[in-house]
User: What shape does this take?
Amino acid sequence: MVFVGLDCLQQTAEHMLPRLFRDYVAGGAHGEVTVLANRNAFKKWAIVPRCLCNVSQVSISTQWLDYECAAPFMLAPVGFLGMMRYGADFMAARASAKTKIPFCVSTFSITALEDICAVEGAHVLAQIYVFRDREITRDMINRARQCGVSTLVLTVDTPITPLRPRDEKNGFRRLTHPSLRQLVSFAQAWRWSLGMMRHGMPVLGNLQPYGMGRTLLEQAKTAASQIDPSLTWKDLEWLRAQWGGKLVVKGVMHPDDAVQCVAVGADSVMVSNHGGRQLDPAPATLDVLPDIVASIGPAGSVVMDSGIRRGADVVCALAQGSSLVGLGRPLAWALAAGGEAALIEMIGGLQGEIRDIMALAGITSIEKLHAAGTTLLRRC
Ligand SMILES: Cc1cc2nc3c(=O)[nH]c(=O)nc-3n(C[C@H](O)[C@H](O)[C@H](O)COP(=O)(O)O)c2cc1C
Assistant: This one.
């Protein structure tokens, strides 16, 4: 499968997946205004071509926290990723190892963190939530430590899960057994169903030790409601004290919050609106990025996600101060469409686009891209 852009990959993925998971990946909260805003924000920017700059050598590798990244992007945490096809979590880990692109494992992972970390060479980060039962969180932190994970990503933009109309229609997080409508959709997606079901019904393996339900649908219903809505800065301080490794706070959209995260000891903040799946309408991440970068100054590390689909988006975000960007849905679509090979193809395709754009803009390294900043861009 040759990567010619994400539209094609998305189409193939959506053709393969049953409705429940097709909608789960694509959908957003309420009116899905933010999902669209995230994309539209990139359309406001063009990258100005430069000439006669000797771009015979362009390097797109970069260092972020403890990670030597082959390109300035990472695979963002996606819950239920292992439902994209059988073994998808392992495929992402192997792709991470082969391409040197970090992979952040979701708390809501089908495969346990321990098994994913056993994939040789995978560049793994562990995403966690603070649960109502702090013992679960403490145990997840310990597990990450025992797996040798160097970076925890604490997601803070989900004190509640808002209504996501597509999931609501499908009964995701509401039903504990598949409805007739879902069974029909599973039958229609017969290739997916055969691939999945011949290995038995999957569950959220990462949460198995905590008894949040016996089946995947039961776990889906229970797990989100276990995230503690009463979280405050005190809890971030508590978590910082528990974890000696690198800490990223994900889901920061306000400069004051970013400043506070750094004050509490976060090593990086991740500007994210959860891909438009939480507050709707929230601003596009690209629109709030410059203020957040300015608020924490050059000493702070900012990464962003939500709406990144092309190499140009990556360059645009980096020019506006992001050290790295994250890809959520593209990871899921690639795995659903063609597994590990499609994911590696997508990563390579994006790398190619970033390299092309940097060369045509007269930039030969990520360091120089950061130094040039917004002088590379023209608002249109
Ligand atoms: C299907 C799906 C599941 C997600 N699950 C999680 C999760 O478990 N933890 C988390 O921190 N973020 C989760 N996210 C948010 C992503 O990490 C990321 O912020 C978002 O997808 C970026 O937007 P994009 O999909 O437009 O790239 C999820 C996103 C999607 C699409």
User: Anything to note?
Assistant: Residues 329-360 form the longest helix (32 residues).
